[in-house]
């Protein structure tokens, strides 16, 4: 069902006001301190003075000049942020007033407004089991609003999820080092053979060239089943339906254990590839988790 223009504009305006306030009130300085200065550009060489790092000596120039010279670097002036967002069918699920896709859009809005506040570029790659949409990195408020609008309202042509393809395409599109936020529920129907190994390979290769941050979005009922009797659960991406007797404690316990094990496995795989992870839950405030993530990341990289 199509959403009328007036409703879209109203929702976008409300989202912009809310996320800008969060950026100004809660994330001032944190984004800059965590991500700025990660890249350095060569500027010039100058004569060595006592106290300079020996590692900075340019031995070629030193040999030609007959006296020591060091390389001088300046902080990279701008960063590129690429939001890689999963818009497969499972993202429409929400047992609270907020779906996983809604939360993805709000988080993306916060990250995007933080970026343009620091004069960085923001790009977008939407994917399902195929690449759905790509917006090249640009600066400015109008571009950010377009990015957020696409996350909220783009109608996916695919239903499944192929995160491996999305990461491979992102690596091909980005010609300079970037911060890649991969925002997904990381649910892949049936976990096809080799999927876990392929995901690790894609994460490893992308993280070598860029700085990947994996943001996992989940709904509370994806780990905890309510006690509501016989419940028909449909897989949004495959259409398969499974009936569960949620009044049976053993069924609820098995569901919970399986979900938690899947989550633990994913986090272990990501961290083993050096990928920072952030986990968010629909219906809950994400700002404390985001601030804690930034602080922990800054402390680790100090």
Computed over alpha carbons, the radius of gyration is 22 Å
The helix-strand sequence is HHEHEEHEEHHEHEEEHEH
In what range is the share of β-strand residues?
A: 15-25%
Structural class of the helix and strand makeup? alpha/beta
- Fourth CATH level, the homologous superfamily of the largest domain: von Willebrand factor, type A domain
CATH class of the largest domain: Alpha Beta
Looking at the overall shape, the CATH architecture of the largest domain is 3-Layer(aba) Sandwich
Helix content: 40-55%
- Tally of separate helices: 9
Describe the protein's topology.
Blueprint: H1 5-26, H2 30-35, E1 40-47, H3 59-65, E2 69-75, E3 80-86, H4 100-117, E4 121-127, E5 131-138, H5 141-153, H6 163-173, E6 179-184, H7 195-209, E7 211-218, E8 230-234, E9 241-245, H8 249-272, E10 276-281, H9 287-301
Parallel strand pairs: 3-4, 3-6, 6-7, 7-10
Antiparallel strand pairs: 1-2, 4-5, 8-9
Helix pairs in contact: 1-4, 4-5, 6-7
Structure description:
This protein has 302 residues and is α/β, with parallel strands linked by helices. The protein folds into 2 domains: 5-32 and 79-301, Rossmann fold (3-Layer(aba) Sandwich), CATH 3.40.50.410; 40-75, no CATH class. Helix content is 43%, strand content 22%. The protein has helices at residues 5-26, 30-35, 59-65, 100-117, 141-153, 163-173, 195-209, 249-272, 287-301, and strands at 40-47, 69-75, 80-86, 121-127, 131-138, 179-184, 211-218, 230-234, 241-245, 276-281.
């Amino acid at each position: 069902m199509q959403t009328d223009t007036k409703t879209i504009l109203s929702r976008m305006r409300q989202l912009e006001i809310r996320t800008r306030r969060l950026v100004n009130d809660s994330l001032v300085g944190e984004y800059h301190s965590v991500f700025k200065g990660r890249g350095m550009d060569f500027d010039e060489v100058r004569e060595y003075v006592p106290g300079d790092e020996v590692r900075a000596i340019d031995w070629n120039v030193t040999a030609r000049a007959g006296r020591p010279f060091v390389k001088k670097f300046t902080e990279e002036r701008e960063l590129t942020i690429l939001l890689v967002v999963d818009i497969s069918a499972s993202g429409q699920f929400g047992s609270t007033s907020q779906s996983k896709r809604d939360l993805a859009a709000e988080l993306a809005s916060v990250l995007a407004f933080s970026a343009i506040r620091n004069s960085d570029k923001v790009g977008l790659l939407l994917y399902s089991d195929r690449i759905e949409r790509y917006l090249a990195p640009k600066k400015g408020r109008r571009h950010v609003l377009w990015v957020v609008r696409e996350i909220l309202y783009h109608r996916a042509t695919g239903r499944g999820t192929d995160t491996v393809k999305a990461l491979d395409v992102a690596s091909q599109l980005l010609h300079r080092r970037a911060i890649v936020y991969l925002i997904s529920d990381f649910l892949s129907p049936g976990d096809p053979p080799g999927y876990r190994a392929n995901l690790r390979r894609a994460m490893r290769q992308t993280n070598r060239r860029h700085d990947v941050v994996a943001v996992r979005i989940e709904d509370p009922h994806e780990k905890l089943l309510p006690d509501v009797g016989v419940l028909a659960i449909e897989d949004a991406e495959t259409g398969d339906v499974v009936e569960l007797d949620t009044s049976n404690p053993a069924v609820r316990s098995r569901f919970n254990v399986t979900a938690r094990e899947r989550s633990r496995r994913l986090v272990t795989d990501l961290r083993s590839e050096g990928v920072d992870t952030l986990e968010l839950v629909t219906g809950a405030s994400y700002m404390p988790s985001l601030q804690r993530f930034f602080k922990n990341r800054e402390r680790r990289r100090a």
